[in-house]
Design goal:
Layout (H helix, E strand, L loop, with lengths): L16 H11 L19 H6 L3 H16 L5 H15 L2 H13 L4 H8 L9 H16 L4 H36 L13
Helix pairs in contact: 1-3, 3-8, 4-5, 4-7, 4-8, 7-8
Length: 196
Amino acid sequence: MTDDRRFKQIPVENLTPDQRTVYDAIRGGPRAKIANSGASKPGPLGGPFNVMLRSPGIGNLVQALGGEIRFKSSLPPKLNELAIIVTARFWTSQYEWLAHCKLALDAGLDPAIAKDVAENRRPANMDADEAIIYDFSRELHETHGVSDATYKRAVDRFSERGVFDLIAVNGYYSLVSMCLNVDKTPLPEGVALPLK
């Protein structure tokens, strides 16, 4: 697979001091412990972090926000990752899907649910919590809001904090999808596109 990314990776030795601050924050944080992530491989940053380096002030705030959303959400990891793959599917973000589908499965999401999401079908066998996350996320992306009924289901189950955390994960990963899609971030060598 050719590397057609628009934002070429910046060698570590060529980073400006401000870019190095972002690099060190990402390399020193929890993302660096996730095998095969854009933050864990030695050398230049990959994935959306490579794009964020172009504006280090914003990039550092964005990566910190992402860390909070990923690792400190009130939503359990399986549900947080479900919202992320719903977002990746909405944006047809191949790189994001590849990374987060695996994390969703590792967190306990049924592979049949992930398959249905990938194929743009509402999964048939979701539990009540998964259905709330899926319905809220899809409705938010598709209608740019949620109905009173969808909001009530979410707030009754997850509280106002959980609803805000759900809005935040959808919004943050929309930004990440935009970065990856505009960049044309390539998948690893030999990996087929996971989404049609």
